[in-house]
Amino acid sequence: MENKYKHIFFDLDRTLWHFEANSHKVLSNIYNHFNLEKNIKNPDVFIEKYKEINENLWTLYREDKVSKEELRGKRFTDTLAHFKVSDSMLGEEMGDYYVHHSPRQTELFPNTIKILDYLKDKYQLHIITNGFEEVQHIKLSESKIADYFQEVILSERVGVKKPHPFIFKKAMKLAKAKSNNSLMIGDDWYADIYGASRVGMDSIYFNPEKIKHNNKIDKEIACLSELQEFL
Ligand SMILES: [Mg+2]
Questions:
Q1: Which residues pair with 113 in a beta bridge?
Q2: From the CA of 13, how far away is ligand 1's center (Å)?
Q3: Mean pLDDT, to the nearest integer, of 149-153?
């Protein structure tokens, strides 16, 4: 079926690269590597608390209230503090371990390679990501999907994060794309879907957990393989 699209912009984390699975693996390794069982009996309790603290800090990072450098160690130092361990040195070491190992994990969402193979000859594929610059390229190459993408647009390079219109405009300029022949695919309604709508770009909301919502969307999928139906 013919459609108007020439360019497809993908989000990376939680859309192609399986952030939760990869992160969980590294956090389990951290629990063992740093002998946390002395102070925290259950690794799952540690991981749950870390995720909660990390998420709150990411909200502050998105609002530019916490710097990237602060975020890295602080999310672990704060988690340790919750379990009555006051050790910011350890927190920093855990932060370094996480930042080194996390992007080297390679789990992708089901059918990622299959759908990229299907799309690559019909469209130009690109990435727009709010993730940290030095790790996003590692994720792409380690998980063996780097070669599918022409342009990788990083918020840190551009200076603003999704959903700021400027990052989408910059992405289209680099890709020589126009909003009327571009499509954004991402899991974050605010950053990806609302962001795309602000520059007049169509979008597909990736909602693998099928979470109920009342957000305004063009289209929604729960599995990447569904893209074949209309692309
Ligand atoms: Mg995402």
A1: none
A2: 4
A3: 98
Reduce the DSSP state of residue 56 to 3 states and report it.
helix
- Output the pLDDT for position 2: 65
- CA of 128 from ligand 1 middle (Å) equals 10
What number is the average pLDDT over the span 95-122? 97
pLDDT at 79 over 60: yes
Q: How far is the CA of 38 from the centre of ligand 1 (A)?
A: 34
CATH classification (class only), 20-104: mainly alpha
Q: For the chain, where are the E strands, in sequence order?
A: 7-10, 124-129, 151-154, 182-186, 202-206, 219-221
Say how many Å lie between the CA of residue 220 and the centre of ligand 1.
15
CA of 137 to the centre of ligand 1 (A): 15
Q: Tokens in use for 116? A: 């990229």
Residue 87 pLDDT greater than 80, yes or no? yes
Q: List Cα–Cα distances, 64 to 54, 130, 160, in angstroms.
A: 15, 12, 10
Closest CA to 229 of 102, 131, 221: 221
Domain 7-18+108-229 has CATH 3.40.50.1000: yes
CA of 186 to the centre of ligand 1 (A): 6
Distance 210 CA to ligand 1 centre (A): 15
Q: In the chain, what are the domain boundaries?
A: 7-18+108-229, 20-104
d(CA 12, ligand 1 centre) in Å? 6
